[in-house]
Structure formats: structure tokens, C-alpha cells
Design a protein that fits this description.
- The protein is of the alpha/beta class.
- It folds into 2 domains: 4-122, 3-Layer(aba) Sandwich (Rossmann fold); 133-236, Winged helix-like DNA-binding domain superfamily/Winged helix DNA-binding domain (Arc Repressor Mutant, subunit A, Orthogonal Bundle), CATH 1.10.10.10.
- It has helices spanning 12-24, 35-42, 61-71, 85-93, 106-122, 160-171, 179-186, 196-209; strands at residues 4-8, 28-32, 49-53, 76-81, 98-102, 133-136, 139-142, 147-149, 155-156, 176-177, 219-222, 226-229, 234-236.
- The longest helix has 17 residues, at 106-122.
- It is elongated, with a radius of gyration of 19 Å.
- The structure holds calcium ion (CA).
Length: 238
């Protein structure tokens, strides 16, 4: 089945480059030079995914993203200029699925598009009550018991706030999560735990400590945007 990708970008050479590269990789592409024509088209037909420039002439990117979300649950990959890191954070909080920083290699756009489509195909996660155990990179997390078990079978102690942080990452694997989002979701009861960076780096150490030292960190820092759990996660009944 051929997937249609809508490219919403006012800079023609960039739009052409993305369109050409996506088409070379088997996608069908529709280009829009502004936000309003895309919104109109979206009311009639929803593409498999849209690649969205945040700097459009007729509507600001954040409002556009909100209006897209009101119309359809189409996956969104944001194109963002390096000088506006806050756009990326706001975009991801508004439900964009991934972002690419300009200038970019068009193959990177294809890779992001594919990875977002794979995640979209995997479908929504089941409710936590039904499936309280997550498995990822050999690890096991029991969301009911707040217990984390390493690939070598050893258990890793977690505080309540830390367990919520783990759960937040596991519920959105391979997505960039902003510091603000992590703080909102994972909260903080611990007065010594004000900085999300400190908490993430402590968690990262725990995840690397148990026989995982040679591998790449499971939680990656995405400069200017936040953190990302690099591995896929499967949830199952305990
Ligand atoms: Ca632009």
C-alpha cells in the first residue's frame, strides 16, 4: 500500500527536496506552500503522515498544529529551525511525533517518517491496569510493584518519583520528551530532586550499571529538546 505524506513547507526548494526523496523511497507526496490549504485538504482526506514546517507565511506553526489535532490524529513530523528550540518543545508537547532540525539531510526526514509510521502502525498502548509489565532491552518494569529488573536478573531500587519517571519514558518510547513534560508527568515529591536533568542522569546510571555498561545509553539527551528512550518497549500482563 502506498503511503501518502503531506509536506507543508513554503520554501519551494526544501519542499521539492523532501518530496523527491520521499518519492524515491516509495511514498506518494502532496505539497502545500501554506497552512490553510493543507487544513482544507485535511478535512476531506487524511494523509498517512504530515511533515510540517513551523515557519509558514499564513499561520504560525503552533496554531497550525493545534488545528490539525482538532481535525485528525495524523502523525506529524516537525521541521524546525535550529534557532528556535522552544518551537520544538512546544511542538512535541502539542503532540507532534518527531522533529527534524534544519538544515537536514533529506534521508533523515525519510528515516523519521518511517519510524513515526512504524510507531503509528503499532497502535495505541493498552491501558496500564491490564498490562502492568513493560519489557525493554532485556529489562523488566513492573508498574504495579514499581520494580525494575535488570537483564542479569538483579533488581534495581526505585523511589516513587523515579518509578514514575521510568513509566513516563516507557509509555512513550523512541519519542523526544521535553524536560517540562517529564516534570509534569513524573512530578517531584523529593525536595532534593528539583532538577529533571539530575534525575534523568541518575536513572541513566542505574540503567547502565547492571551489566549494560558496554551499550549505548538507553536514555539519550537530545540537545535543546529533552530526552529520548532509545529502545522499543512491549507491555504485557504480569
Ligand atoms: Ca518556512
Amino acid at each position: 500500500m502506498t503511503r501518502t505524506v503531506a509536506v507543508v513547507e513554503d520554501e519551494q526548494p526544501i519542499a521539492d527536496l523532501i518530496a523527491r526523496t520521499l518519492e524515491e523511497h516509495g511514498f506518494r507526496v502532496e505539497c502545500y506552500g501554506a497552512g490553510e490549504p493543507f487544513l482544507t485538504a485535511l478535512q476531506h482526506r487524511v494523509p498517512s503522515l504530515c511533515v510540517l514546517d513551523l515557519g509558514l507565511p499564513d499561520i504560525d506553526g503552533i496554531s497550525l498544529l493545534k488545528r490539525i489535532r482538532e481535525i485528525a490524529a495524523v502523525p506529524v513530523v516537525i521541521l524546525s529551525a535550529r534557532q528556535h528550540p522552544s518551537d520544538r518543545i512546544v511542538g512535541l508537547e502539542l503532540g507532534a511525533d518527531d522533529f527534524v532540525i534544519k538544515p537536514f539531510d533529506p534521508r533523515e526526514v525519510v528515516a523519521r517518517v518511517r519510524s513515526v509510521l512504524r510507531r503509528a502502525d503499532a497502535g495505541p498502548r493498552p491501558a496500564d491496569q491490564d498490562v502492568p509489565v513493560a519489557r525493554f532491552a532485556g529489562w523488566r518494569f513492573d508498574a504495579g510493584a514499581l520494580a525494575l529488573t535488570a537483564p542479569d536478573g538483579s533488581s534495581v531500587e526505585l523511589g516513587a518519583a523515579e518509578a514514575r519517571l521510568v513509566q513516563t519514558f516507557l509509555e512513550a518510547p523512541q519519542r523526544v520528551l521535553s524536560r517540562e513534560f517529564l516534570l509534569t508527568k513524573a512530578g517531584s515529591e523529593d525536595s532534593f530532586d528539583r532538577s529533571i536533568d539530575v534525575r534523568v542522569s541518575r536513572l541513566r546510571k542505574k540503567l547502565q550499571g547492571a551489566g549494560d555498561g558496554d551499550r549505548k545509553p538507553l536514555i539519550r539527551t537530545v540537545y535543546g529538546a529533552g530526552y529520548l528512550l532509545t529502545c522499543p518497549v512491549t507491555w504485557e500482563a504480569s
